[in-house]
Automatic annotation (TrEMBL):
InterPro entries: 4pyrrol_Mease, 4pyrrol_Methylase_sf, 4pyrrole_Mease_sub1, 4pyrrole_Mease_sub2, CobA/CysG_C, Siro_Cobalamin_biosynth, Uropor_MeTrfase_CS. It is an enzyme of class 2 (transferase). The keyword S-adenosyl-L-methionine applies. This is uroporphyrinogen-III C-methyltransferase. Its EC number is 2.1.1.107. Belongs to the precorrin methyltransferase family. It comes from Dongia rigui. Residues 17-224 form the Tetrapyrrole methylase domain. Keywords: Methyltransferase, Porphyrin biosynthesis, S-adenosyl-L-methionine, Transferase. One of its GO terms (biological process) is methylation. The gene is cobA. Pathway: Porphyrin-containing compound metabolism; siroheme biosynthesis; precorrin-2 from uroporphyrinogen III: step 1/1. One of its GO terms (molecular function) is uroporphyrin-III C-methyltransferase activity.
């Protein structure tokens, strides 16, 4: 393993690595991400990067915060992109570290285009998206052949901070058996209303996973019609993922973290095996 790690490329002077930090647990970093942390002169990181990940930076590396959080003072995206260009032109080895995957609602595409426009060489290092890894840590698979053959990943707000009008919520309600929502907690009530109006069952299973894969992870299981009220009552705060669909019920069998704490898991929460045997 050490020999393999030693053969991995490091960041060259004047280069930018657009890198995914995964959903939070440093154990979910890719080897290239760790290599980048160990070779960067400057690490420009966002609000969702866990502190334990930043501790892996090489001694002497400069850490620059460039986070964006809804409702709070935030760096503007054009300024962040141009800062990457500036640092690269200074000959720095630059690691742009973003929570999850840089190309999954992470605006990494915008930063990449700015680098191209300015002639800056770059590498893309994918990361585990919270919409997959975060759900897995909660014991919820995004797909399961007994419940769904498709999944939709949707942002809960647009560039203005409001519920996206560009999303056909009625079509989504009818056509996506599993819906995974990023950055949706603020608008969960309005999103639920639109999905229900579009034909989604008000009692559809919902899970909200806050601070996924970290020591502070919290999971709330509820229903679509009760989601907003239950989130408020539980005091759930961002960052959080929301998943809607039958796969939520599989948590009764797959909550591996809960099992470590003594939870008894149910082998077949969907009853599929029994139906197969009867058939």
């Amino acid at each position: 393993m050490n020999k393999l790690f030693a053969t991995l490329p490091g960041i060259e002077p004047g280069w930018v690595w657009l890198t995914g930090a995964g959903p939070g647990d440093p154990g979910l970093l890719t080897m290239l991400a760790v290599r980048g942390l160990g070779s960067a002169d400057v690490i420009v990181y966002d609000a969702l990067v866990d502190k334990s990940i930043l501790e892996l930076a090489r001694p002497g590396a400069v850490l620059e915060y460039a986070g964006k959080r809804g409702g709070k003072p935030s760096s503007k995206q054009p300024d962040i992109s141009l800062r990457l260009v500036q640092l690269a032109r200074e000959g720095k080895r630059v690691l742009r570290l973003k929570g999850g995957d840089p190309f999954v609602f992470g605006r990494g595409g915008e930063e990449a285009l700015t680098l191209v426009e300015n002639g800056i060489p770059f590498r893309i290092v994918p990361g585990i998206s919270a919409g997959i890894g975060g759900l897995a840590y909660a014991g919820i698979p995004v797909t399961h052949r007994d419940s769904n053959s498709a999944v939709a990943f949707v942002t809960g707000h647009d560039a203005t901070g409001e519920v996206p009008d560009s999303v056909d919520w009625a079509a989504l309600a009818k056509g996506a058996p599993v819906i995974v929502l990023y950055m949706a907690l603020k608008h969960i009530e309005r999103i639920a209303e639109r999905l229900i109006a579009g034909g989604r069952n008000p009692n559809a299973a919902v899970a909200v996973i806050a601070k996924a894969t970290t020591r502070e992870q919290r999971v709330l299981e509820t229903t679509l019609c009760r989601a907003a009220a239950d989130v408020a009552a539980a005091g759930i705060e961002p960052p959080a993922m929301v998943v809607i669909g039958e796969v939520v019920k599989l948590r009764a069998a797959m909550d591996w973290l809960g099992a470590m704490d003594g939870r008894k898991l149910i082998p077949d929460p969907l009853g599929q095996r029994q139906r197969d045997q009867v058939g």
